Batch of 2 targets.
Target 1
Amino acid sequence: MKIRTLIIDDEPLARKRVKQLLASSAEEFQVIGEARNVAEAVSACLELRPDLVFLDVEMPDGSGFDALEKLSAENMPAVVFVTAYDQYTIKAFDVYAVDYLLKPFSEERFHQAAARVRERLNRASDEDLSQQIKNLLSHLKTNRDFLDRLVINHKDRLVVISVKEVDSVTAYGNYLKVHAGGKTYLLRDTINNLSQRLDPEVFLRIHRSTIVNAERIKEFQPMFGGQYAVILKDGSEFVLSRNYRKEILSRFE
């Protein structure tokens, strides 16, 4: 019997690539649907009841973990995570997940994951696999880990950026502008999601639409209305809003 598979990723090219790679094992895997976000993911899992999900961890309206938390044990499929999370979190995937794919992944690594899926589904019960996912979600809640890199689609290629290189991040519609090393990249994410995955000791939320690297701050200049201008070492200037002023300035006193 074929493994009924659902692909969940907000990037059309990413979904297409997984689908193409699965096509080479069409005698074993059947793609039964796709989803672009958390809401569609939950709906598709409940309606289609897949055996397996390739699940993007980072999506604009939440995370892949948010989708899994909305599913009961009886509706929980086996999961291969597709992620740009740091190595510490990857250790958790090694223990609790069927497998994971770390962006950017090779065709060889994908087929290794597919082989592991076949093996695990053959020898593990649905109850065992569901419990593993529940254990992973519990682990991630009690062991908060922060990103050490970002993987960004840029000019038809995937660019890997160490978070240490990031100067600032600003909201830009449904995207974020990531400023790093004198260049600007567009990342499909929300400012709230990203701020929760960056180390708050290093990255400061200074405005509802702005995050800056504390090590890049040169000075604060008073403005009208109780606001401040935040000047970075590269000359970039951002507004420190009144809502964040007390917390941020106290860290530099």
Target 2
Amino acid sequence: MFVFVAGAAFLAGIALVISIFLIQQIVFHSKVIIEKQSTIFRLDKNLESVDELKKNVRVLETNSALNSVKANSDNSALQTVLDALPDNPNADAFGASIKNKFVDTVEGLTLDNLSVTSPNSQGEETEDNDSKSADSSNTLSFSLEVSGSADKLRELLTKFERSIRVIEIKSFEIHTSEDKLSLTIQGAAYYEPAQNVHLEKKVVKP
């Protein structure tokens, strides 16, 4: 009798262990199926957006406003968008662009001072700066001082206004000294870091 009871208890224990194992496997495979379905859903949504994205790109390629301000006639209209909002700060190139494409193209204008501050050289961030938006960190600050006649200074400001590159004039001051005017500009240009699109690998644990 004792042997029978012990054997029954042993079999019941084995059955319980097997039942727990099967339940764990069912739960685990359910998690895997849910994650797979979620991935399939996201991929389907992305595929549905492809045609709309292609359509929008074709529309931009024929956009008259973008084509009218191309830096080079051989460039596509989409290049204008990239020129307006580059994917990296490149402070040196921006400073050279201000000199070559703005100041030097206004005859009779003298460049007195130009400085460009890249994001990495604006000082360490404090805890108070943690609340700043992401856009504020994608900024190149610059200071420009030029001198010339009133008409030349006005022409320079007009060039900034019509610039393809997104440039914000935060403040400017005009000073008179002897027979010329001096213009000091504090401004900022913006850039948008490139976005990486990739598939992630997710491990589902039991």
